[in-house]
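Hi C.,

You asked whether I'd gotten around to modeling the 157-residue construct. I have! Everything is below, sequence then structure, no commentary in between.
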Amino acid sequence: MKAIAKALGLRSLSRTSMHLTLLKSKIHRATVTGASLDYEGSLTVSADIAQTVGLLAYEKILVGNLQNGERFGTYVIYGAPGKGLIELNGATAHLGKIGHLLTIMSFARLTAEEAKTHRPQIAVLDRQNRIIRCAQAEMRTSRREWEAEVLQASNRQ
């Protein structure tokens, strides 16, 4: 606990009201399958994919587009399970194109004590939005190890 306080530049973590915002869920390399300007906002994600990483319907998300660097906030709506749907709706349809790769993230506010044992749920998808790897994130020894794992998973498409 003292190490966390020191890393945050605090004297102590004894205040019970302090919370940290950590990654809760991530869907990595999701391929956009559709876009609808006329829909009332949000991002459609096949229910099975969303539920695998613990994303709830209407949960706030942050989305990063790997092709154009756009980042935007919206919320999840469930699409038909087993279809691999990732659809940009409403204004978000301007922020990507069919075929673009997205990273979809949600976050949770945790106490410092809860943060010690928290591990986000992460799914990596292939180009057809099939889950090729899903697990609780583990602390890696290096960025290079993580990059090698993502590259290996991507090459299995």
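If it helps when you're writing up: Residues 18-155 form a domain with the Barwin-like endoglucanases fold (CATH 2.40.40.20).

Thanks,
B.
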